[in-house]
What we know:
A two-stranded antiparallel sheet has the order 1-2. It is mainly alpha-helical. The protein contains seven helices and two strands. It has one domain. The termini are far apart. It is elongated.
Amino acid sequence: MAFIDDTKLNSTDTLNIIRPVGRREIRYALHDVDGTHSLIREWPPIMSATIYYAMTCGLADDFDSDANTKKLVNRVGKEETDETRRFCVESAGLSALTQMEFAVRRAVQLGNVPPTAGIRLTAQQSGNNDTIIERIWAGQERFDDIAEPPELTAFLTRITPRLFSFTKRFSTASAATAIPPMPGTTPRAGVFPARWSS
């Protein structure tokens, strides 16, 4: 028989007891394997760096190369923004592919996609992309009601799963790396930073 006993616990900076339960037998347990688990294992710095990278690197054909994976490992905690960090925490629970789609859509929004992708959005199409970005942030994952150009759909279909695979490789490579505190840097539209290609 398992018991929980919080009678000797006090709220601290790292523990907030909302409703003390006293000493009770544990009869049922629910394990949240999605968002909460991600936050416990310090996933946000990895995801935040990946999203920032996707938003600013230009998503060229080699964005997910092993060489770029190694470069990004050294940038964990350095190449992030308040936006990407906040998104990672607030979107915990969304599928990782939806989080990757957010990153790719933000790159499109900022103009940081290769010209060869052929994505030239009209004002209405840009507005639709903006709406989807907002809806992802609000926790939605389906956007069948919004029309999108085939070039954008094809780009998302091709790049999003690659970005997810890149994130998994990057996470594995970063596992032994200490994660430093994150300064607030800001991604800029239309910029393909040289730091990603060196």
